[in-house]
Amino acid sequence: MTAQILDGKAISQEIIAQVRARVDARLAGGKRAPALAVVLVGSDPASQVYVGNKKRQCENAGITSIAYDLPAETSEADLLALVTKLNHDDAVDGILVQLPLPKHLNAEKIIELIDPAKDVDGFHPYNIGRLALKMPLLRPCTPRGVMTLLEKTGIDLVGKDAVIVGASNIVGRPQALELLLARATVTVCHSKTKDLADKVRGADVVVAGVGIPNFVKGEWIKPGAVVIDVGINRLESGKLCGDVEFDVARENASWITPVPGGVGLMTVATLMQNTIDACEARGR
């Protein structure tokens, strides 16, 4: 068996086209384009790449992108003041503060200040709580993107055994809530999990997000399983790879995401979905 590739590039382009159609319909009806404010503090190279991708996709989707590029020494008071200003700006539909922030800034405090109705990253406790209670509004971008990829397999997730490797607030925890919402049976593994290999071997769906190159071994993958690799790591050679040992895993899986070209593109496309969803929910 050789797994079929879940092409994040093609699927993300479909999503962007759908968002663009919704934006065009708004404009044709005399309404304005949705607006996304992107706040970048400092000059972290990876963050600059991510923000650049978001700006390009805003242009493709017809969404107005408003950039706030702040110096690394920006004080917490100044950043909180900017978020407050954006909360009260009716011309702004979505607020994204790029993570990670410089160490002197409290990310949790910043995220909690964002208006939940403009929280297009889906990280505010209110939005996570809505997802936990099966009443989702704005959903975390990467887990929502993963669910879109899983839908493309055509596999019914009801009752399937899903194993998530990694328990971060950005991926693992909200991903578990998304899969529970789809009525899968979910196991979340982390650094203290015993017999990790055995747990992965029993999974119909594996979602890996630990940030360690090739951490999930291909031989652990159950024949016919769906493998979603959220990780993106740069090796000493400069080559990018995921958290899953791709070449071996592909021989066992039925579907698998590549790195690059998989989940990362879906995250940005989902951000565009969240932005127009936020705009329309606000009646703007």
Automatic annotation (TrEMBL):
Assembly and binders: Homodimer.
Catalytic activity annotation: (6R)-5,10-methenyltetrahydrofolate + H2O = (6R)-10-formyltetrahydrofolate + H(+); (6R)-5,10-methylene-5,6,7,8-tetrahydrofolate + NADP(+) = (6R)-5,10-methenyltetrahydrofolate + NADPH
Domain Tetrahydrofolate dehydrogenase/cyclohydrolase NAD(P)-binding: 140-281
Residue ranges annotated for the Tetrahydrofolate dehydrogenase/cyclohydrolase catalytic domain, each copy included: 6-121
One record GO biological process: methionine biosynthetic process
Top-level taxonomy: Bacteria, Pseudomonadati, Pseudomonadota, Betaproteobacteria, Neisseriales
Protein's UniProt name: Bifunctional protein FolD
Gene Ontology molecular function: methenyltetrahydrofolate cyclohydrolase activity; methylenetetrahydrofolate dehydrogenase (NADP+) activity
Pfam families assigned: THF_DHG_CYH (PF00763), THF_DHG_CYH_C (PF02882)
Keyword NADP attached: yes
Keywords from the UniProt entry: Amino-acid biosynthesis, Histidine biosynthesis, Hydrolase, Methionine biosynthesis, Multifunctional enzyme, NADP, One-carbon metabolism, Oxidoreductase, Purine biosynthesis
Species assigned in the record: Andreprevotia lacus DSM 23236
EC number: 1.5.1.5, 3.5.4.9
